[in-house]
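User: For a reading group we're discussing how well predicted structures match intuition. Take PTS system, ascorbate-specific IIB component. Before you show the prediction, I'll give you the sequence so everyone sees exactly what went in.
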Amino acid sequence: MKILCVCGMGFGSSLMLKMTADKVIKKKGLKATVEATDIGTAGSTPVDLILTNNEFASQLKGGKSEVRAVVNVASEEEVEKAINDFLESQ
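Assistant: Thanks. Here is the predicted 3D structure of PTS system, ascorbate-specific IIB component, as structure tokens, for the group to look at:
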């Protein structure tokens, strides 16, 4: 599984979200890679799941990748729920 964490510039909240997603993936024992990027790059990057905030989620929905919004990028529980919801939808 490939996960993309997205924010406006690709090096602020997306990096924090990536670190949180990495912790969740390790804890769950999933085989996945996680990258952080900016909103401009996200739409053209082929991934399974995009994690981002509500504003960018609405802009990215409708593409080839599943999109899940995360309010608190440091919340392992919220990121885990987003990943679990994605896995259950497959």
